[in-house]
Structure prediction request, 261 residues.
Amino acid sequence: RTDGGEHDRFDHTVFHIRAQIAAEVGRYHVTGGLAGDIAGSCAAHAIANDEQNAFDLVPLDGIEIAKYVVISRKMKFKSIDAFESWLVKELGERIATAKEAVILARLDGTAPAGGSAVAAAAIAAANVNAAVPKTDAGIRAELAKLKGKGQKIIYANASTIYNTIAGIQDTNKHPLFMASAMDDPTVAGVIYGAKVKEDVNLADGVFYIVVKGQLLANDYDDLTIFSSTLPKSAAECKTAYSLFDAGLKNPKGAVKGTFAS
Prediction:
C-alpha cells in the first residue's frame, strides 16, 4: 500500500468508506426561517425553534482507477532490488494523477473517465469566470466569491504562477505575491493569505481556488498494489487499484478562473 504521492495533489478531506456502503456527501442549504444553522433564543419553558435547513445528497458512486505493468520472469530476477520499489512508487503516482483528474472533472461538473457527471458536486456557475483581469481587483473579486471557513488555496501551473499571479501589483506598484520557502515544495508563495500551490496538470492561465475542507473525497478502497503470476508466460503482473470519488461540500466553496489574455 502506498499513498501514491497524494500530498502533491489537490488538498481534500478524505473519508475511508468501504465499497459496499452507499457513498453520499451531505450538503445543506437554507430553505427559510432562521438564517443558516444559527439557533434562536427562546423564553424559559418555551418550545425551541425547529431546524430550518434542508439537506441535499450528492451521490458519489466511486470511480475505479487501475494501472498495471507486466514484468518478465527474467527481468524480475535480473533487476536490482530498488527497481521494484521504484515501480511501486511509479504505479502509485499514476493512480494519484488519475485521482486528480477525477477531482477536476467533479469540480467542472463533467463526467470523469469511467463515470457520470454529478452536477451537484461541481463549482457553482457564478464562481466560474473565463475572463479574470490580471489585476489586484481581479484576484480579490475571485477570493470574495468563496464561502466557507478555512485556508484558501490557489492551484495553478508554474507558467500561470510566475508569469501572471506573481506579477499582480497593488495601486502603489507593490507586488502582492510573496514567495515562500516552505517545507512543502509545491507551495510557491502566498497572496492575500491564500497559499499558491503549483500543479502541473492545469492549463496555462487556468487556476482554481478552494477553501480547505470544502472538497470532500471518498476513498472507498485504499490504494492497493498487488502481484500475480501469469501462468502461460510466468511473467509477473503488478496491479495498482483504487476506488475513489470526490465532490464539493458547498458549490461556492471553490472558484475556477481563467486569466484574460
Summary: The CA atoms of residues 19 and 220 lie 5 Å apart.
